Amino acid sequence: MATIHFYLVRHGQTRLNRSRRLQGTTNSPLTKKGKRMAKRLGKELQNIRFTAVYTSDLKRTHETAELILSENKRGCPPVYRDPDLRELSFGKFEEANNMAVIPTALRTLGLRRILRAFANDEHVAELTELFRTMDGEEEIETSVHLEKRFRRALETIAQEYPDQDANILIVTHGLILSNFIESLKGEVPLFLVDNSRASLIDYKNGNFEIKYVNQIKQESEKID
């Protein structure tokens, strides 16, 4: 059975990231720093021969993927867009300043619940549920639905390469990626995985296995 090596990447810094605003389904261009971050990651992954690249349908992921590939020395793979890789929508909190959300959170949830959520081993899932509660209209996906959507995307992609080991670059978003890694019992930083850092997860026989999370890997891991 083939092994699919998924290189999972959060897009580079955007203008909304820089201004510390919530960014879900809103399109926001990469900053100069975000572009540098993507090219830096590209250099770190330059010796990996990617079979294919998949991004979400939001522009910042596609732009990040192109910058990563611009540094690759192992060929130019096809690039596909998959809506299932898109970020969680923050509903009425889209583009809200991070600090401006705090009064609403305190009023709706209370300090104790917020602190308990961040102390939880599954703090990304808890964070998702907190936003869902604050929104009040249940337009925001549950953490379970978010995880299933991302898992479905990866499993569908893996089915495209049933008879060969493959390196697949996935460029997606911070919360949906962090939520998926957490569902596999991986350790996720308090404020989600970093922009333009790779996490490697293998998929074989219907199972996902974490190799590393949110790291810079200097060694070559190519498959010819």
SSE arrangement:
Elements: E1 4-10, H1 15-18, H2 32-44, E2 52-55, H3 59-69, E3 79-81, H4 98-109, H5 111-119, H6 123-135, H7 143-158, E4 166-172, H8 174-183, E5 198-204, E6 207-215
Parallel strand pairs: 1-4, 2-3, 2-4
Antiparallel strand pairs: 1-5, 5-6
Helix pairs in contact: 2-3, 4-6, 5-6, 7-8
Would you give an account of this structure?
This protein has helices at 15-18, 32-44, 59-69, 98-109, 111-119, 123-135, 143-158, 174-183, and strands spanning 4-10, 52-55, 79-81, 166-172, 198-204, 207-215. A six-stranded mixed beta sheet has the order 3-2-4-1-5-6. α3 links the parallel β2 and β3 (79-81). The longest helix is centred in the last third of the chain and has 16 residues, at 143-158. The two termini are 17 Å apart. It has a single domain (2-88, 140-213), classed as Phosphoglycerate mutase-like (Rossmann fold, 3-Layer(aba) Sandwich). Helices cover 39% and strands 17% of the residues. It is α/β, with parallel strands linked by helices. The chain has eight helices and six strands, in the order βααβαβααααβαββ. Residues 218-224 have low confidence and may be disordered. It is globular, with a radius of gyration of 17 Å.
List keywords for this structure.
globular, Rossmann fold, 8 helices, six-stranded mixed beta sheet, disordered C terminus, 224 residues, alpha/beta, 6 strands
Q: Within the CATH hierarchy, at the fold level, what is the topology? A: Rossmann fold
- Which spans of ≥5 residues are poorly predicted at pLDDT below 50? 218-224
Based on helices, strands and strand pairing, what is the structural class? alpha/beta
Helix content: 25-40%
CATH class: Alpha Beta
Number of strands: 6
Gyration radius (Cα, Å) is 17 Å
- How many angstroms separate the termini? 17 Å
Q: Describe the sheet with the most strands.
A: 6 strands, mixed
Protein name: Phosphoglycerate mutase family protein
Pfam families: His_Phos_1
Active site: 11, 87
Binding site for substrate: 10-17, 60
